[in-house]
Amino acid sequence: MIKSALCEMLGIQYPVFQGGMAWIADGRLAAAVSNGGGLGIIAAGNASGEYVKEQIRIAKSITEKPIGVNIMLLSPHADEVAQVVLEEKVAVVTTGAGNPSKYIKDWLEAGIKVIPVVASVAMAKLMTRLGASALIAEGGESGGHVGELTTMVLIPQICDATTLPVIAAGGIADGRGVAAAFMLGACGVQMGTRFLSAEECTIHPVYKEKILKATDLCTMVTGKRLGHPVRSLRTQFAREYAKAEFSGMPDEALEGLATGALRLAVQEGDNEKGCFLAGQVAAVVKKEQPAAEIVREVMEQAEPILLGASKWVK
Predict the structure, then answer these.
(1) N or C terminus of the chain: which is more exposed, having fewer CB within 10 Å?
(2) What is the pTM of this model?
C-alpha cells in the first residue's frame, strides 16, 4: 500500500484529499472520505461561519477521523470562518483564491495543519516562509478557480521550490493520475471532480448526470476579465457568460451574472442559470460509487504503476 509523509503527518491511511468544492463538499461527504482513509474537506465557499460550524459538527458526528475545512479567501465571511475553525479545532485548513498570510500564525498556534492551495512558485515560497505545513499545487485543469499553469508543469516546479510536502491537484481522477503526481515529486493528491460521483455527494441528479456523461471537451474557462477565472461545464450559462465578458458589459453587472449560479446548479440542477463547476478530468468519471471505494480504488490502481507494472515498461 502506498504511504507517504502526508499519512503520518495527518494520521490518514491514504494520501488522498477530497477537494473543497463550494456548496458541494459538506460534512457528510467529508466524513465519508475520512472514514474511507483519505482526508475529507468541508468547503466554506461563500457560506457563513454558522453554516461551516454546522457542517463540521455533522462530520464529527459521523467520523472520529481527521477532517479539514477549505476557506475561500474571496468570501466576505472569510474572517468569520477563520475563527470558526479555531473554535471547532479542525485538524486541517486548506485555503484557496487568495493569500492566507494574516491567519496562518493563529491557526498554527492552535495546532491546525495549514495547507494552502498555490498556483505559482512565488506563492509556494511565501507560504513556505510563513510556516505552512504542506502545499496543494493545483494546475489549471481543475474545476472552480484556476491558475495559468498546468499540473504537469506546476508540480515539479513547486516541489523544487519548497521543502514542504506537496499535494498535486488538477486533472487527477484515477490511479494513472495519482502515479503521475508521485513521479512528478508530489507525496499526495487532491481530487475534486472525481468525488462529484460519490454516493455521499448530494448534488442535484442533473449535475451528477452531466459529470457521468462528460466528454473530453466538456469544460471551459470564464471570468478572466475580472481576474478570477473559473472552469465549469460548457453549458448554456457558461456560453452566455463568456459572450457577456466580451460585450462591453460593466464589471459590476458581469459579476452579478454569476452570483448564486453555483448554488442553482448544485441544489436545483438549473440548466439555464446554473454554473456546473468541473475539471477537465470529468470525462474520466464514469460511475457512481461510495467515497471510500473511490479512495481505495485510485490507490490500488496507482500502486502497480509506481512499481513498474506499466504496459510501456519491460
Answers:
(1) C
(2) 0.92
- Confidence band (pLDDT; 50, 70, 90) for 312? low
Question: What is the C-alpha end-to-end distance of the chain, expressed in Å?
Answer: 22
**3-class SS string, 68-91:** EEEEECCCCCHHHHHHHHHHHCCC
pLDDT in tens, 160-170: 999 999 999 99
Q: Which residues make Cβ contacts (< 8 Å) with residue 77, sequence separation at least 6? A: 44, 46, 47, 48, 49
In whole angstroms, give the CA distance from residue 4 to residue 187.
6
CB 34 within 8 A of CB 56: no
Place of cell 457568460: 241
Maximum alpha-carbon separation in the chain: 59
Phi, psi of 69 (to 5 degrees): -130, 135
Closest Cα to residue 74, out of 129, 145, 148, 123? 145
pLDDT score at 311:
56
Main-chain phi, psi angles of 145, to 5 degrees = -65, 130
Are the beta carbons of 113 and 9 closer than 8 angstroms? Answer: yes
H/E element, 257: helix 251-258
Residue keyed to cell 466538456 = 218
pLDDT of residue 301: 94
Q: Where are the alpha helices (DSSP H) in 36-174?
A: 49-62, 78-88, 101-109, 121-129, 151-161
Q: Name the amino acid, one letter, at 135.
A: L
Q: Which of 137, 159, 160 is nearest to 149 (CA)?
A: 137
CA distance 100 to 94: 9
Mean pLDDT of 219-225: 92
Please answer whether residues 277 and 218 qualify as being in contact, where contact means their C-beta atoms are separated by less than 8 angstroms.
no
